[in-house]
Amino acid sequence: MRETFSLAWQNPWVRLAVYLALGLLLAWLLAWVAAKARMALTIVGLSFILSYLASPVVRWFEERRLTRALGVVAVFVGGLFFLGLATVLLLGMTSQLSRFLVNLPAILAPLEGWVQQLPDRLGQVPLPPLLREALAQATGNLELLLEVFTQTLLRGLQSLLAQGGGNLLNFFAALLGGAFQLLTVITLSIYLLYDLPRIGAQLFTFIPRPYQPRAAELLEKADRAFGGYVRGTILGALANAGLVTLAMYLSFGPFQGFSGEVLTQSMVLGFLAFIFSFVPVIGVLISAVPALLLALPLGLGPLLVVALALWICNQLQGVIWPLIMRQTTSLHP
């Protein structure tokens, strides 16, 4: 029997079939384990990503001869502050959206009145009958379009805020429901961030010694390229949020007063700019819409000021973002 197996094993096709069967079995086992432990693997993966992204802050403390533990504590406190600020700003965004829904008819009332008075204004100008009839028909179509747009927008916002807050409150409930997972991610991130050099050195020993110098070079390039790009994107989004917050506070302040409410509103708009900074191309346009809608009931002057401030922020971000990327990825801006 053993000789028969030995003779069969010498056949390369038999070995290939056995290796393929073992590989498929191993892949099935890994998929089964991943499906059963998906939540745990997700938590570990998020913890590793957070610790990896925050590692430059800890290295900054170590370069100044401070303890690594102090850097980890600074990252932890900063992360808690960011989470608390994000929660407050999201609640403020919900309040702003509810207030906008209530004031929407009053906001659109001047525009509707202007459209309704358009035929009378055109009647004072001598025009050919054919052109006058075409303008009257276009005015009626514009008024109908505006009415349909208003009703559609109202229905959309009401469905969003229905059932005691609608989808946003459901989102907050799901966010609070995942507090335990978030706490677990933070705890694991702290341990990984503190022991990240030791873990990396231990994993590095699995690479054969002749290939370790090459592997170290490749890992350094990958860290500079991928990690630097991700960190640069986050820093650029934070810079955009700061610019928009300052610009909106200076834009709305002269018309609404430099009060705490205006500052909170500006921070909410800055937080939206931070979120949509990760959306290519259209993210800038989407983040500008709430600011323009809030400026609309203040009149044409404030609306133009806000639009100009947003345009200046966009131009400045086009200068700041490449400079940040140059520092994080060593690429020419």
Describe it.
The protein is mainly alpha-helical. Among the domains are: 1-35; 223-333, no CATH class. Helix content is 88%, strand content 0%. It has twelve helices and no strands. It has helices at residues 2-9, 12-36, 38-63, 68-116, 118-123, 129-160, 162-177, 179-204, 212-256, 260-276, 282-295, 300-329. Helix 3 (38-63) packs across helix 4 (68-116) and helix 3 packs across helix 8. It is elongated. 16% of the residues are buried. The model has no long low-confidence stretch (mean pLDDT 75).
Shape: elongated
Which runs of at least 5 residues are low in confidence (pLDDT < 50)? none
This entry's quaternary arrangement is single chain
Radius of gyration: 29 Å
Helix fraction by DSSP (H/I, runs of at least 4): over 70%
Describe the biggest sheet?
none
Distance between the termini: 70 Å
Strand content: under 5%
The total strand number stands at 0
Output the keywords.
elongated; 88% helix; 333 residues; 12 helices; mainly alpha
